[in-house]
Every structure is written in C-alpha cells, then in structure tokens.
C-alpha cells in the first residue's frame, strides 16, 4: 500500500498539470494515483466535488503549458458542440449539480434533444447536426466551468474546416493540435484508471443520455460512488476498455501494481 510520502511525490510531479509536450508516461501514472486519492475523498463525503474540482484545476494548468500552441477556438465558436460527445459518470453528475436554478430549463432542453437523438449510436449521431442542449443562444457553453474532459480538450487549428465537417457537408479531417490530443488521452487514461482501481464504472456514455439519467435519478451520485453502474443501458463509448491496450495496461500496472 502506498503511503502519504508517495502521494506527495505524485502531487508534486503533476502540480503544474500534465506536460503534453515532453510526454512523460510517469506523469500519467502519478496523476492516476492522485485522482484515485481524490476519489477516495469523494466517497468519504458522498460527493464527486473533490475529484472533479481537482481534475478541472489540474487540466487548466496543463492548458497554460500549451497556451503558445495556436488554435482557432474561441468563445462562440461551437461547431464541435453539435456532435456525439461522451462523458464519465462523475462528469455528468458534476455538470448537473452545477446547474442550480437552471436545472429545470436544462432538463427540458435535454429532453427535447433526446426526442431527436434517443438510441442513436456514434455513427448515426454523426450524420445529425444538433446543438448540445447546454449550448447557449450566443454559442457559448452554459456550463463552461464544469464542462467535460472531452469538451475541455476539443481543439482545432481551422474553424472553417470544423464548420464544414460538423455540419456534415465535408469529409475532411479536423486538425487537432498534437499536444491537445495527448492531453485528452493522458487525462482520460488517468481518470479511467482511478475509477477502475476503485471498482467503479468507468465507461463513458453519450452526453445527452448521461445528463438525462442523472437528472431523473436523484440518488445517482450516491449510487455511483457505492459502485452502481448508473450508465447501464445507455449508448456508450465504442472504444471500450482502454486498458486492453498493452501500453495503457502498463501504465495502470505501474500505478497500482
């Protein structure tokens, strides 16, 4: 069992967020262990807040490290907010809890979205152009501070290409800056590993279905923290368990043995 000294070393290693330029696998291992510790804190108090607040803050620090990398993204640019997105259970719970007085209106918007998309898989959804239910009329995310990992790392160097691709009018490939792609992978692996080691469900589900599940199940936070798969039966990420990939499995083993 790893002690407080190891945890302090891990926290020091990722104090400034993941370095997605140098790409140190050891940082992902350290982050995996730190997220697991925050998850234990979350279970102790019955709230995902310690996990999700730490994750968001650490990702913000990682983003500062690559601020010099040019991207076309800006407030109001929302082309990618019209397609399939997957989220982890604690992300969906955290987003819904952040809505406060806006929850009823948001729930109505989610229901309206699902009337058009319910049951579609990633390929079917990819042929539809429908805005995220939490996207504001001004093209800005209404839950920007608590937005999911996928949304935090979704970047492009050409907004015009995004407009064509996400509207379905082009088969071009969106050009994602490599450092941002590695950021998504690193944080996703670290979070998945932490959840997996804790014995909690870790397969992401489609965002709108996930929001509905959380909004309509008042006890879902407690249930998920206790080990229930609250996303059972929902459209899920087709990629499956990332730790079936040998190099990813090696990171998990390095983190937890």
Topology:
Layout (H helix, E strand, L loop, with lengths): L3 H10 L11 H21 L3 H17 L20 E2 L1 H10 L4 H15 L4 H4 L23 H4 L6 H8 L11 H20 L7 E2 H9 L4 H6 L20 H11 L1
Antiparallel strand pairs: 1-2
Helix pairs in contact: 1-2, 2-3, 2-9, 2-12, 4-10, 5-10
Annotation keywords:
mainly alpha, 53% helix, two-stranded antiparallel sheet, 2 strands, 12 helices, single chain, 257 residues
Question: How would you sum up this structure in a few lines?
Answer:
With 257 residues, this protein is mainly α.
Query: What Rg, in angstroms, do the CA atoms define?
Result: 18 Å
Mean pLDDT: 93
Q: Looking across the biggest beta sheet, what order are the strands in?
A: 1-2
Name the structural class: mainly alpha
Percent helix, as a range, is 40-55%
Report the total helices: 12
Q: Can you summarize the main beta sheet?
A: 2 strands, antiparallel
Flag low-confidence runs.
none
Shape: globular
Oligomer: single chain
Distance N to C terminus = 10 Å
Per DSSP E runs of 2 or more residues, the count of β-strands stands at 2
Along the chain, the helix and strand elements come as HHHEHHHHHHEHHH
Q: Structurally, how many domains make up the residues?
A: 1
The share of residues in extended strands comes to under 5%
